[in-house]
Amino acid sequence: MHNKVVFHAMKALNGFGFPVLRFNFRGAGLSEGKHEDGRGEVEDTKTALRWLEERFHLPIVFAGFSFGAATGLRAACPDPHVDALIALGMPVQVDDRSYGYKFLSQCTKPKLFVSGGNDQFGPRHELEQLVGRAPEPKKLVIIEGADHFFSGHVAEMKRAIEEWLRDTANAAT
Questions:
Q1: Which CATH architecture best describes the domain 4-172?
Q2: Strands (E) located in 11-159
Q3: Domain ranges of the chain
Q4: Minimal CA–CA distance to 86: which of 149, 140, 42, 143?
Q5: What CA–CA distances, in Å, run from 35 to 3, 64, 77, 100?
Q6: What is the pTM of this model?
Q7: pLDDT per residue of the chain (173 residues) written in tens, 0 to 9
């Protein structure tokens, strides 16, 4: 929640007037509960999305980083209140854990995927295949030279979000 990727994504979204909610999943940081390998964390995301809808009644753009992207997309894709999705540093494989994204084949909302060209958890070829199977509208931005945390490249990541938001908003009008 307090890393530079999440912070700069928040700044990009907030710059377009979106209220932003950042939260820790159960068992992370100072939050209560215990990590549940993604199952309970999907529920955490659903709860956060419901709160945003009830509080603001505005279009919702879901943005998640790493595990937050992998887990959050599961909740945000089918949610009728979520209008668009941003996945930053989406993991494809971490150590001995592989992530499955079959649900993306049914997700017709606008999607932005931003990854570093040297992301150790999202090898380019696998990420390109994954995004290739997702329906339009979608955009994949690979930031050359960036690792999973966009070290030295957060400004480029933020710019990719801002350009996509601008393009997506113009396409909707």
A1: 3-Layer(aba) Sandwich (3.40)
A2: 60-65, 82-88, 93-94, 97-98, 111-116, 138-143
A3: 4-172
A4: 140
A5: 19, 17, 22, 18
A6: 0.91
A7: 679 999 999 999 999 999 999 776 555 555 566 655 656 688 889 999 999 999 999 989 999 999 899 999 999 999 999 999 999 999 997 776 668 899 999 999 999 999 999 999 999 999 999 999 999 999 999 999 999 999 999 999 999 999 999 999 878 75
